[in-house]
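Annotated sample (chain length 275).
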Amino acid sequence: MISNAVSFALSLNDTTTQIAALKALANTVLFRGVNAERGALALERRLQRTAGGTLDQRNHFDETSRSDEDLNNDSDATRAREAHRRAEQFFDLHKALAGMALLNGLSSFDRADTIDSTLARMQKNSLKVDESALAMVAEALSVPLELVMEHRTKQLMSEADQLKADAPSIKAAYEAAPDKSDAEDVFEDFDTLTKYSTWVATYASVKRQHQYATERAMRYINLDAIADATLLKATAEELYTAAKAFEERHFDELMAARDEGRSFRTLDDARRGRR
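Output written by the structure step:
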């Protein structure tokens, strides 16, 4: 069974299915790259506050952090560098995938998302509120739903403002990433948990696309949507089978990562719609 998600997508039986899987994979790693870079920037802001807030103080802090052999692996400085490295890997893979001939067709279906479209969509969706989740919180805390809504809205607005402020830096990091890599080689450089999480997120993406296409087909009795839904269902099932084989092959490593405190969504979580 193929363990490389890029190799798996390229091995699918027909071009349309290959495109669906490659596009989902490309969009997944781009989204994850943006979030990794956001995390790195957040850690750097905390470092700046720790260092006193001035550029000179921050540079001094960075230099002493880099030279300190006893630096704790959980420190913000180490975590920020690791997050930047992880974002670069994701951006590298996205560029390699987006550059493939299969994802450069004439229709939007045949093209992966861009860094600009992804940032715009994330900013647009950043203020969406999950009212059912807030209702559960209100009930659990025995407080009015309106109060929970007020606090959550303030938090979402703060995060939306920060994403808007971070967008130029995130785009710059994307543009600085390598752009002539081999997609299969980049995926192989991921650690086991990152590979698994990418498999899971790609499966979840195709599964969501199938749900949307199914809804369109039922709502509009649209033949194209019916064809899309059928194709995406088959692609999701093949992705699930391949990802499950990867999970079983690396089960001990994944459980060791969980025992170390690393949380991640499993394939069955994605199948049940859990985040």
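Annotation: The chain has a mean pLDDT of 87.
Annotation: The chain is about 75% helix and 0% strand.
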